[in-house]
Amino acid sequence: MNKNHKSKEKSLVLIKPDGVQRSLIGEIVKRYERTGLKLVALKFFIPTPKLVEKHYLIDDRWLESVGGKTIESYKEKGQKAPFSNPIQGGKWVLEKLKKFLSSGPIIAMVWQGNEAVGIVRKITGGTEPLSSDVGTIRGDLTLDSYPLADTDARAIRNLVHASGSPQEAAKEIRVWFKPNEIVKYRLIPEAILYDVNLDGIKE
Ligand code: GDP
Ligand code: MG
After folding, report:
1. How does residue 75 score in pLDDT terms, banded at 50, 70 and 90?
2. pTM check: above 0.85
3. I want to staple 181 with a disulfide (CB 3.0 to 4.6 A). Which of 108, 128, 169, 177 is the partner?
4. Residue 196 falls inside a structural domain
5. Which of 58, 66, 83, 148 to mutate to test the pocket of ligand 1 (most atoms within 8 A of CB)?
6. Which CATH number characterizes residue 144's domain?
Protein backbone atom coordinates (compact mmCIF):
# COMPACT_ATOMS: atom_id res chain seq x y z
CA MET A 1 0.00 0.00 0.00
CA ASN A 2 1.43 3.40 -0.88
CA LYS A 3 2.71 5.82 1.75
CA ASN A 4 -0.14 8.29 1.19
CA HIS A 5 -2.97 5.73 1.39
CA LYS A 6 -5.69 6.98 3.77
CA SER A 7 -5.09 3.96 6.01
CA LYS A 8 -1.75 5.57 6.96
CA GLU A 9 -3.27 8.75 8.47
CA LYS A 10 -1.99 9.45 11.99
CA SER A 11 -3.30 11.29 15.06
CA LEU A 12 -1.49 12.30 18.23
CA VAL A 13 -3.33 11.58 21.48
CA LEU A 14 -2.21 12.63 24.96
CA ILE A 15 -3.80 11.20 28.08
CA LYS A 16 -3.55 14.26 30.31
CA PRO A 17 -2.63 14.01 34.03
CA ASP A 18 -6.31 13.76 35.07
CA GLY A 19 -6.75 10.65 32.88
CA VAL A 20 -3.73 8.97 34.44
CA GLN A 21 -4.73 9.93 38.01
CA ARG A 22 -8.30 8.71 37.49
CA SER A 23 -6.98 5.25 36.44
CA LEU A 24 -8.54 5.67 33.01
CA ILE A 25 -5.52 4.72 30.87
CA GLY A 26 -6.91 1.29 29.98
CA GLU A 27 -10.46 2.57 29.38
CA ILE A 28 -9.24 5.37 27.09
CA VAL A 29 -6.82 3.18 25.12
CA LYS A 30 -9.58 0.57 24.72
CA ARG A 31 -11.95 3.07 23.12
CA TYR A 32 -9.44 4.04 20.43
CA GLU A 33 -8.11 0.49 20.01
CA ARG A 34 -11.46 -1.19 19.37
CA THR A 35 -12.20 1.00 16.33
CA GLY A 36 -9.46 -0.79 14.39
CA LEU A 37 -6.99 2.10 14.64
CA LYS A 38 -3.44 0.85 15.12
CA LEU A 39 -1.21 2.01 17.98
CA VAL A 40 2.16 2.90 16.44
CA ALA A 41 3.89 4.78 19.30
CA LEU A 42 3.46 5.23 23.04
CA LYS A 43 5.39 6.79 25.92
CA PHE A 44 4.73 7.59 29.59
CA PHE A 45 6.52 10.47 31.31
CA ILE A 46 6.18 13.90 32.96
CA PRO A 47 6.52 16.60 30.29
CA THR A 48 8.22 19.95 30.94
CA PRO A 49 6.19 23.19 30.63
CA LYS A 50 8.45 24.04 27.68
CA LEU A 51 7.45 20.89 25.78
CA VAL A 52 3.77 21.61 26.45
CA GLU A 53 4.22 25.16 25.12
CA LYS A 54 5.93 23.85 21.98
CA HIS A 55 3.04 21.45 21.42
CA TYR A 56 0.28 24.07 21.64
CA LEU A 57 2.16 26.78 19.70
CA ILE A 58 2.62 24.57 16.62
CA ASP A 59 -0.48 26.06 15.03
CA ASP A 60 -0.08 29.83 14.91
CA ARG A 61 -3.87 30.35 14.87
CA TRP A 62 -4.41 28.24 18.00
CA LEU A 63 -3.83 31.13 20.48
CA GLU A 64 -6.45 33.25 18.76
CA SER A 65 -9.03 30.48 18.39
CA VAL A 66 -8.72 29.17 21.93
CA GLY A 67 -8.76 32.75 23.29
CA GLY A 68 -11.88 33.54 21.25
CA LYS A 69 -13.63 30.45 22.64
CA THR A 70 -12.68 31.46 26.18
CA ILE A 71 -14.06 34.99 25.75
CA GLU A 72 -17.30 33.48 24.37
CA SER A 73 -17.62 31.20 27.42
CA TYR A 74 -17.34 34.20 29.75
CA LYS A 75 -19.96 36.07 27.69
CA GLU A 76 -22.37 33.13 27.91
CA LYS A 77 -22.12 33.34 31.69
CA GLY A 78 -22.86 37.08 31.48
CA GLN A 79 -19.35 37.85 32.77
CA LYS A 80 -16.48 39.85 31.40
CA ALA A 81 -13.32 37.91 30.54
CA PRO A 82 -10.12 38.96 32.37
CA PHE A 83 -8.54 39.77 28.97
CA SER A 84 -9.71 41.98 26.14
CA ASN A 85 -8.50 40.23 22.98
CA PRO A 86 -8.36 36.59 21.78
CA ILE A 87 -4.54 36.42 21.64
CA GLN A 88 -4.30 37.51 25.28
CA GLY A 89 -7.00 34.96 26.14
CA GLY A 90 -5.04 32.26 24.29
CA LYS A 91 -1.90 33.12 26.27
CA TRP A 92 -3.91 32.84 29.49
CA VAL A 93 -5.16 29.35 28.53
CA LEU A 94 -1.64 28.32 27.43
CA GLU A 95 -0.15 29.21 30.84
CA LYS A 96 -2.83 27.12 32.57
CA LEU A 97 -2.23 24.20 30.19
CA LYS A 98 1.53 24.30 30.82
CA LYS A 99 0.88 23.99 34.55
CA PHE A 100 -1.76 21.27 34.11
CA LEU A 101 0.06 19.00 31.66
CA SER A 102 3.38 19.18 33.53
CA SER A 103 1.74 18.44 36.91
CA GLY A 104 2.19 14.67 36.57
CA PRO A 105 2.76 11.80 34.18
CA ILE A 106 0.97 11.72 30.85
CA ILE A 107 0.73 9.17 28.03
CA ALA A 108 1.63 10.24 24.51
CA MET A 109 0.39 7.98 21.71
CA VAL A 110 0.13 7.88 17.95
CA TRP A 111 -2.85 6.11 16.37
CA GLN A 112 -2.91 5.21 12.68
CA GLY A 113 -5.69 4.26 10.31
CA ASN A 114 -8.28 5.55 7.85
CA GLU A 115 -9.39 9.06 8.90
CA ALA A 116 -7.45 8.64 12.16
CA VAL A 117 -7.86 12.33 13.08
CA GLY A 118 -11.63 12.41 12.56
CA ILE A 119 -12.24 9.04 14.20
CA VAL A 120 -10.16 10.01 17.24
CA ARG A 121 -11.91 13.43 17.58
CA LYS A 122 -15.34 11.75 17.33
CA ILE A 123 -14.51 9.29 20.12
CA THR A 124 -12.84 12.02 22.21
CA GLY A 125 -15.79 14.46 22.13
CA GLY A 126 -15.95 18.26 22.39
CA THR A 127 -13.61 20.33 24.54
CA GLU A 128 -15.99 20.90 27.49
CA PRO A 129 -17.05 17.68 29.28
CA LEU A 130 -20.35 19.28 30.40
CA SER A 131 -21.49 19.65 26.79
CA SER A 132 -19.55 16.91 25.00
CA ASP A 133 -21.69 14.09 23.62
CA VAL A 134 -22.71 11.06 25.65
CA GLY A 135 -20.73 8.08 24.40
CA THR A 136 -17.49 10.08 24.05
CA ILE A 137 -14.49 9.90 26.40
CA ARG A 138 -14.95 13.49 27.58
CA GLY A 139 -18.73 13.12 27.77
CA ASP A 140 -18.79 9.83 29.67
CA LEU A 141 -15.77 9.80 31.94
CA THR A 142 -15.45 13.26 33.49
CA LEU A 143 -17.42 16.36 34.48
CA ASP A 144 -15.55 19.66 34.10
CA SER A 145 -17.13 22.82 32.63
CA TYR A 146 -16.06 26.27 31.37
CA PRO A 147 -17.68 28.03 34.36
CA LEU A 148 -15.82 25.90 36.93
CA ALA A 149 -12.45 26.01 35.11
CA ASP A 150 -12.69 29.76 34.53
CA THR A 151 -13.83 30.51 38.09
CA ASP A 152 -10.85 28.57 39.42
CA ALA A 153 -8.54 30.07 36.76
CA ARG A 154 -7.29 26.74 35.41
CA ALA A 155 -7.37 24.71 32.20
CA ILE A 156 -10.42 22.56 31.51
CA ARG A 157 -9.69 19.03 32.70
CA ASN A 158 -10.91 16.90 29.85
CA LEU A 159 -8.71 13.77 30.06
CA VAL A 160 -7.20 13.83 26.57
CA HIS A 161 -5.70 15.89 23.79
CA ALA A 162 -6.42 14.84 20.21
CA SER A 163 -5.00 16.39 17.01
CA GLY A 164 -7.28 18.74 15.08
CA SER A 165 -6.13 17.92 11.51
CA PRO A 166 -3.69 15.55 9.76
CA GLN A 167 -1.30 18.48 9.19
CA GLU A 168 -1.42 19.44 12.86
CA ALA A 169 -0.95 15.77 13.80
CA ALA A 170 2.21 15.47 11.68
CA LYS A 171 3.74 18.48 13.43
CA GLU A 172 2.62 17.38 16.90
CA ILE A 173 4.02 13.88 16.42
CA ARG A 174 7.44 15.44 15.72
CA VAL A 175 7.23 17.30 19.07
CA TRP A 176 6.60 14.14 21.10
CA PHE A 177 8.40 11.38 19.15
CA LYS A 178 11.63 10.81 17.24
CA PRO A 179 11.06 9.27 13.79
CA ASN A 180 12.52 5.93 14.95
CA GLU A 181 10.01 5.75 17.83
CA ILE A 182 7.13 5.31 15.37
CA VAL A 183 6.84 1.54 15.01
CA LYS A 184 6.20 0.20 11.53
CA TYR A 185 4.41 -3.15 11.68
CA ARG A 186 1.42 -5.01 10.35
CA LEU A 187 -1.60 -5.67 12.55
CA ILE A 188 -3.19 -8.89 11.25
CA PRO A 189 -6.86 -7.69 11.60
CA GLU A 190 -6.09 -4.74 9.32
CA ALA A 191 -6.70 -7.15 6.46
CA ILE A 192 -10.46 -7.14 7.09
CA LEU A 193 -10.46 -3.33 7.20
CA TYR A 194 -8.35 -2.58 4.14
CA ASP A 195 -7.61 -5.61 1.92
CA VAL A 196 -9.32 -5.25 -1.42
CA ASN A 197 -9.53 -8.93 -2.39
CA LEU A 198 -10.01 -10.58 1.01
CA ASP A 199 -8.44 -13.81 -0.13
CA GLY A 200 -7.00 -16.11 2.48
CA ILE A 201 -10.09 -16.29 4.71
CA LYS A 202 -11.87 -19.30 3.20
CA GLU A 203 -10.22 -22.68 3.70
P1 GDP B 1 -9.35 20.66 22.19
O2 GDP B 1 -8.73 20.56 20.82
O3 GDP B 1 -10.77 20.16 22.24
O4 GDP B 1 -8.48 20.03 23.27
O5 GDP B 1 -9.46 22.22 22.54
P6 GDP B 1 -8.46 23.45 22.24
O7 GDP B 1 -7.33 23.06 21.35
O8 GDP B 1 -9.31 24.60 21.82
O9 GDP B 1 -7.92 23.80 23.70
C10 GDP B 1 -6.86 23.08 24.26
C11 GDP B 1 -7.16 22.80 25.73
O12 GDP B 1 -7.19 24.04 26.45
C13 GDP B 1 -8.50 22.16 26.02
O14 GDP B 1 -8.49 20.76 25.85
C15 GDP B 1 -8.73 22.57 27.45
O16 GDP B 1 -7.98 21.75 28.36
C17 GDP B 1 -8.14 23.98 27.51
N18 GDP B 1 -9.14 25.02 27.23
C19 GDP B 1 -9.63 25.32 26.00
N20 GDP B 1 -10.50 26.34 26.07
C21 GDP B 1 -10.56 26.72 27.37
C22 GDP B 1 -11.30 27.75 28.09
O23 GDP B 1 -12.07 28.51 27.51
N24 GDP B 1 -11.13 27.83 29.41
C25 GDP B 1 -10.29 27.02 30.08
N26 GDP B 1 -10.19 27.17 31.39
N27 GDP B 1 -9.58 26.03 29.46
C28 GDP B 1 -9.71 25.88 28.12
MG1 MG C 1 -6.99 21.47 19.99
Report:
1. confident
2. yes
3. 177
4. no
5. 66
6. 3.30.70.141
